[in-house]
Amino acid sequence: MGCFLLTVGSNPISLRGNFVVYSRVTLMAQEHSRTRRKIPNNLRYPRRGKLPPDLGANLFLKNTTNTTKESYQPGIMINDEEEDQEQDENDDDDDIVWESDEIEAIASLFRGRIPQKPGKLNRERPLPLPLPYKIRPLRLPMPKKRTKMASPVLFSSREPLSKKVYKSPGVLTGLAREIKSLPEEEDVSSVLDKWGQFLRKGSLSMTIRELGHMGLPERALQAFCWARKQPHLFPDDRVLASTVEVLARNHALKMPLDLERFVGLASRGVIEAMVRGFTKGGSLHLALMLLSKAKKGNRILDPSVYAKVLLELAKNPDKHILAAALLDELGDRDDLNLSPQDCTAIMKVCIKLGKFETVEALYKWFRQSGHDPSVVMYTTLIHSRYMAKKHREALAVVWEMEGSNCLFDLPAYRVVIRLFVALNDLSRASRYFSRLKESGFSPTYDIYRDVIELYMVSGRLAKCRDVCKEAEMAGFKLDKQIVSQLLQLGERYSK
């Protein structure tokens, strides 16, 4: 009986006849032979049965068997006893021991809210902030204001045609141009009938005023007569006031026989329109008569009407007495409400009348009313103090203008340079003269004359000649007095 000895690795294997003695090794076949899949250890060698779950501990916190994946490496033989020992060591490593406080801390995360520290179990929260709509006092409901969209073109495109027409200045002034182009024998109804359905109350007032600016009071009266026949356009005080003002300005308005009765029945807007029309037309006696009748009838008119009449009266020195009486009448009013333009106009009138205290009072009232003076009001105040020989007080107004970053215009430069000439301040006068030209203004003849006189008083003959040459290049011809003074100054320095 033959005997063969096969050696694999370091373990000899005896083969006797047809009997093969298998040792506890695993033999690796060749690469092309079929391999058997290895059974996992937990199925081959089950250690013990499963225990019932511990209800006291959280099952999610227990780390169960941490199975390790074994990779199969061909050509290596592993002993079963060694595998058992390694498995036992892995089991000992995988069994993590948790202490009671750790388990309690981690288990509390799964129970819900963590209990607070003792002492402040009922925490006091601050009160919520008051809401504006809850603390606002109760009042009657107000209508919602219609807010325009960000794009005015889109908003206007959605409006109906009637709303685009009755308040559009372009359309209303275009009606006046169409009426002007009509033949004399044709009535204005041929134009207005086409637009009558789109007009509203007050629309034709702009058209009538435009006809007055064009010098067509007859057409304005025809437009008013057409509006009277339209039930949706009349009665309207705005159209009536515009017609009355146009007719009064063009001397085409007939005065009523009983003026006192007319003043008592007419509206305030119509009376003010008549006064404005008479004032612009030069009929100041009619305007004053209407104001006196309104005063007797206790009709209170707008202060702007008085300002316009005062400004026209102050232009004529013979009527300064009437202007002073009207100014006193305006000063007696308690509800003095003047716009910046009207306030400045009355200040100019007071300067012509020599009432410089009234100018100061008006300026003080204007500042106390919360308004900011304009460059025109500053210039008027400087001129008033210059005329009152209060040069230092006028200089304080100049520094106030500079501090408020007020931009100077040509009249402001003229008054300020005249003030520095009166103070004999050559450096500041020349500085503001240079600033005037740097600002793009062309000096007037009186500015050239004041600067030349100041240089002559200071003995600056070369500067005088330069300014004279500049004035002649600007187209001004020096008067004989300036020329004679320059000649005398030149002869004095030549000697």
What report would you give on this structure?
- With 495 residues, this protein is mostly helical.
- It has a domain at 1-47 and 72-96.
- It is 56% helix and 3% strand.
- The protein has helices at 41-44, 80-94, 100-111, 132-135, 152-158, 161-165, 169-180, 189-195, 204-213, 217-228, 237-249, 259-265, 268-281, 284-296, 303-313, 320-331, 340-353, 356-368, 375-387, 391-403, 410-422, 426-438, 445-458, 461-473, 480-494; strands spanning 3-8, 11-16, 19-20.
- A three-stranded antiparallel sheet has the order 1-2-3, with no helix packed on it.
- A hairpin with a 2-residue loop joins strand 1 and strand 2.
- Helix 10 packs antiparallel against helix 11.
- The chain is extended.
- Residues 70-96 are annotated as: Disordered.
- PPR repeats lie at residues 409-443.
- Pfam families: PPR_3.
The tally of beta strands, per DSSP, is: 3
Ranges where pLDDT stays below 50 over 5 or more residues in a row are 1-33, 64-80, 147-156
Q: SSE string, helix = H, strand = E?
A: EEEHHHHHHHHHHHHHHHHHHHHHHHHH
Average the pLDDT over all residues and give the rounded result. 78
| Main sheet properties | 3 strands, antiparallel
Number of helices: 25
Percent of residues in beta strands: under 5%
Find the structural class using helix and strand composition: mainly alpha
Largest sheet: spatial strand order: 1-2-3
| Helical residues, percent | 55-70%
Form type: extended
Distance between the termini: 166 Å
Rg measurement, Å: 53 Å
